[in-house]
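BUG: 3D viewer hangs when loading the predicted structure for this chain

Environment: internal workstation, default settings.
Expected: structure renders.
Actual: progress bar stalls at 90%.

Input used:
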Amino acid sequence: MLNENRFSTLIVTCVAVPGLTMFLCAGPAKAQSNSANYAFLVASGFLCDPGGRAACPAEARSADGDSYQMSGAGTFNAQNKSVTAAGTFAHQISNGTVIETGVWIVSQLVSFDAYGIAPGALMLGAFGPAPFGPTPAGGLPPHGPMGSSMFSNPMPTGGLAVLRIRLLPMSGPSRNSVLQVNCPLGNVPRERTVEGIRLTSEMSGTEYSEEVSGRVIFLSIRPEVSTPAKTPPQETAPDSVKQPGSQ
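Structure tokens produced before the viewer hung:
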């Protein structure tokens, strides 16, 4: 079991989180060349405050007491439904025994319902350093806390993403499931005020619909719009320069 836990930790550390970190730290230039307009974390990265036991991993529980514990990260485009994401999971039965561990990869973005951005989450330090990127020596972004520089960086956004994923256990066959990732920021529907994940097994139909714990966040990527280069004005020939054939 110790080796399995190390394997899960290694996957989410070396595959999912660094890929997202590179995406976030690349700045607006990277965002312009990337087709994704959202990034997300599921109980990983800066969400895993060492002092917060309920932050990581995210856990969803079924009616009979079984649960899945999951971590991961990814990016997606809400318009064309392109998505890239991966993470780790552990399946635990009601008596606390972990019967399965492995990795998950996303196969489809089924839907994404955005609740709206929440810049105040950065101001309060609810999701790590503010903003995501370098700040001047005073700790505030240029042009003030709500300035244009801040809005060109990834912004915390509430929403519900429904992802079709494939569970790849360390032993046994792989299988498909549907993962719901919910971040209750912005204009949150009354029925989705609890932060966390839900999981439905496509093979057995079992629903893990109780969000036990876990921090999740979406980050809206707004690429800067580059200004078209102006055509330099044509220089007028001096009067002293006569054109051929002129009098």
